[in-house]
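Batch manifest, entry 17 of 40.
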Amino acid sequence: MFLAQCANMNMHRVLSGTRNIIYAMEKGVGSVRSEEELREMLKEASKVRDGWLQVLTDKTWADDSEMRKAIRNYNALRGVIKSLRWALQQPMAGNPLY
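Output type: structure tokens
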């Protein structure tokens, strides 16, 4: 029962969000990005993520705080890339929330 309620709430949020995006696009408000802008952001995020991965694999950090920073930034960029792929509706792009 609880899971069904959660599913209904999430579907309501998705539909509400979709309606808001459509409204924003019709009215010309908000920051709706073009597909080309999203693709450029995806390329840039991939380059930055690869840079942090290089730092992790080279083990060039001076101390543990630098290593933690590299791990944190690498994982954050993985989420950014997953979200951008989802927004571009690329094949095999899963839900960015999971």
